[in-house]
Design brief:
Two copies of one chain form a homodimer. By secondary structure, chain A is an alpha/beta fold. The first copy, chain A, has three domains: about 160 residues, NAD(P)-binding Rossmann-like Domain (Rossmann fold, 3-Layer(aba) Sandwich), CATH 3.40.50; about 160 residues, Dihydrodipicolinate Reductase, domain 2 (2-Layer Sandwich); about 80 residues, Alpha-Beta Plaits. In chain A, about 35% of the residues lie in helices and about 25% in strands. In chain A, the strands form three sheets. In chain A, strands 7, 8, 9, 10, 11, 12, 14, 15, 16 and 18 form a ten-stranded mixed β-sheet that branches. A six-stranded parallel β-sheet of chain A has the order 3-2-1-4-5-6, sandwiched between helices. At the A-B interface, helix 2, helix 6, strand 12 and helix 12 of A face helix 2, helix 6, strand 12 and helix 12 of B. Strand 12 of chain A pairs antiparallel with strand 12 of chain B, so a sheet runs across the interface. Chains A, B: Its EC number is 1.1.1.3. Chains A, B: Pathway: Amino-acid biosynthesis; L-methionine biosynthesis via de novo pathway; L-homoserine from L-aspartate: step 3/3; Amino-acid biosynthesis; L-threonine biosynthesis; L-threonine from L-aspartate: step 3/5. Chains A, B: It catalyses: L-homoserine + NAD(+) = L-aspartate 4-semialdehyde + NADH + H(+); L-homoserine + NADP(+) = L-aspartate 4-semialdehyde + NADPH + H(+). Chains A, B: One of its GO terms (biological process) is methionine biosynthetic process.
Chain lengths: ~450, ~450
């Protein structure tokens, strides 16, 4: 489990030296709050906090509110300095932060990071390095910014059995989908709006293609199921193919469309357990609590055996909310530096098998345009039944150019559903498959 | 702040001995889960957990699922035993648990409690005893059961400035008010229904008169504002005077009525800070997230400077949800026992003044039956303005027996509002004051 620490603590009143790596939106906010609230931090930690260095990529860039003596472009040297006890990594990216964070951990510095991609890709290696050095590695800010969810999963639910974690964990995509839902506009238009308002970055790929959510899903699944889960284990599908017609179809079904990160424990008839983690846009009934999450807000919905259903809701992104989470972790790590000890490391003892996505049970909403000829409905229905899929609802609307068939399946294996759709596409009576969107949350 | 601990830890693999005080709904569930999931607990803690004794009030009562060798009625001796490392207090009440818990803390045992009344009344004394012995005192289960809120306030928001905490923290009263809202039934009828369904106890006073919520408000305010707050500091008004007409009036104002625990930091024009904590039934707009909390669920809404708005929602009561919170704390305390160290104690350095309730700014919804004579409206309006209160909305409906005046004020000091109502009651043109209910959440 965790290597015990021999950290006896520097002692009450002793200074905690902090290095900040990265001075973007979050780094700037962290630095500002550490200065502005320095007395509160000292009282809460039991010793003064001093930022002793700030690493940036471009030393020449003017930074009006920062003491120039603190600025360096040599992060590797900074994290090894004797006057540094704790390192905050808010650079972003994977390879470079990985190397610097490992250097910091090996040098015996505690690390607080907001870097979801780094933790999702290399969490195990970083955790082992933290264990070896007997220092803390905290990453609340990596998932859902200010909304405490890493802490509750690591700590409050440590005595419970978590069965499911479903989250809206990306503000950019929730803003776009919510705007499409309220205005009826199409995806490109709302992506442009999101960019204009600052909810989407210049290159929005990581957000809109679901990679950001997939990193967070990996972290959440690992914590929930006490198993190592990396971003590569998470099936990932973004929102760039969602159309205004999809949103309208969802409305007719009394649903809305959300990009959901779903982490689930499944138990076989023979009692064997496995887990899955996946990100995709899904129809969700409007009565479901997650359906009420608007604009760029985030929410995480947890089902645990004893606790029942819990939901956490708030700002999942932004400089201030992310800084709040970073500083909460800083206080905890700094308290340990002053008073001794460390938090438990990752608990990954369960080591549950991770299901291949084809083996995950999901439910499809399928919208087909079919030729209006005798026997088409029977033909389509038989394709489903041949693949072992039973249908929950079927709606047929005729028109001059054929008929529209909207089908909601019962739960079935993803593989069976994919095969069915492939066969439908190959059927010449099926003129078009207008959309295939999974459905979640129907059992709430 | 916190006395550093010299707890070096028993060592990986060493046993943690647990004493459970109380074998009611929660105690029974905790014992059951510790037995059923013993392997998970051992893996998560880093050493086996063994329940070595269970204290009850009546040894003769049959307890089919409990090893009789564990049972004792001498809690004082139990908590002092050498084979006990950690004590779980789930007895309830104040005086007796206080004495036993102090005994346990002084004997160097870590304590996990679900007892809101105890912590609200004697939290400071218990915290000091825990600090002196260098052991943990945890009480997540005392507030909102399984919903993590103590942990987030103590830990995740430790780097932020919390300005407001508003919660629905009592399941009994929320069930009753929600049932009155959906059915139009009166209070006594829905209290009977709540009792029948097990949402209210045989003697529901502590719940319906707001004392349970007030204890929780004291705990939340103390954590949020780093100040010692006891139950005696919390203004407390329950729901037993709420009528079906009040609920109907709320609906006309597009509101619902909830029993709210409100903890707030206020800053004067001269920059001086103070805090308030109060419990009363209040109108809340239907669009407010707290208005959507149904049945016996709980929710806590937090506003912090960097984090912005957060909401936590789930089961606030019940054997299983409370056990979940107790066991999360048990894992944390047990990890410290095995690996060394302890969590920080209470942070109460801010020591902010606690406002007298009369000095709290609130807003009233007042429903008057007035004599239908010339000048009554002017007279009533002048009573408000004489007390410095401005009116937000006024609605007058005439009838054969006089007129009904429904008034919503702007924010004003509670004292001014109380004085106004007193003067209105004394005015012989005011035939009846049908209700006076405060309003919250209008600025969401």
């Amino acid at each position: 489990m965790t290597a015990a620490t021999n950290n006896p603590g520097k002692g009450e009143g002793q200074k905690v030296g902090v290095a900040i790596l990265g001075l973007g939106t979050v780094g700037t906010e962290v630095l500002r709050l550490l200065n502005e609230k320095s007395e509160d931090f000292e009282r809460r930690i039991g010793g003064p906090v001093e930022v002793v260095g700030v690493a940036v990529s471009d030393k020449s860039k003017p930074r009006p509110n920062v003491n120039p003596d603190l600025i360096t472009d040599d992060a590797f040297s900074l994290v090894q300095r004797d006057d540094v006890d704790l390192v905050i990594e808010v650079i972003g990216g994977i390879d470079y932060p990985r190397r610097v964070v490992l250097e910091a951990l090996r040098a015996g510095k505690s690390v607080v990071t907001a870097n979801k991609a780094l933790v999702a890709a290399h969490g195990a290696e970083l955790s082992d390095a933290a264990d070896s050095s007997g220092v803390d590695l905290f990453f609340e800010a990596a998932v859902a910014a200010a909304i405490p969810v890493v802490g509750p999963l690591r700590r409050s639910l440590a005595g419970d059995t978590v069965n499911k974690v479903v989250g809206i964990v990306n503000g950019t995509t929730n803003f776009i989908l919510d705007a499409m839902d309220s205005t009826g506009a199409d995806y490109q238009e709302m992506l442009a709006e999101a960019t204009r308002l600052g909810y989407a970055e210049a290159d929005p790929t990581s957000d809109v293609e679901g990679h950001d959510a997939a990193s967070k899903a990996a972290i959440l699944a690992g914590l929930a199921f006490h198993t190592r889960v990396t971003a590569a284990d998470v099936y990932c599908e973004g929102i760039s193919k969602i159309t205004a017609e999809d949103i309208a179809a969802a409305k007719s079904a009394d649903c809305t469309i959300k990009l959901l990160a779903t982490c689930e424990r499944v138990v076989d008839e023979d009692g064997s357990e496995a887990i899955s983690a996946r990100v995709y846009p899904a129809l969700i009934p409007r009565r479901h609590p997650l359906a009420t999450v608007r604009e760029s807000f985030n929410a995480v919905f947890i089902e645990a055996e004893a606790a029942g259903r819990l939901m956490f809701y708030g700002n999942g992104a932004g400089g201030n909310p992310t800084a709040s989470a970073v500083l909460g972790d800083l206080v905890a790590a700094a308290r340990n530096i002053v008073h001794g000890g460390r938090a438990p490391g990752d608990s990954t003892y369960a080591n549950l098998p991770i299901l291949d996505f084809g083996q995950v049970r999901t439910r499809y909403h399928i919208d087909l345009h079919v030729d209006d000829r005798v026997g088409v409905l029977a033909d389509v229905a038989r394709t489903f039944s041949d693949n072992g899929i039973s249908l929950r609802t079927v709606r047929q609307e005729g028109s001059d150019e054929g008929a529209r068939l909207v089908i909601v399946t019962h739960q079935a294996l993803e593989k069976e559903l994919e095969d069915t759709v492939e066969q439908l596409r190959a059927n010449d009576a099926v003129l078009a498959v207008n959309n295939v969107i999974r459905i979640e949350g129907m059992d709430v």
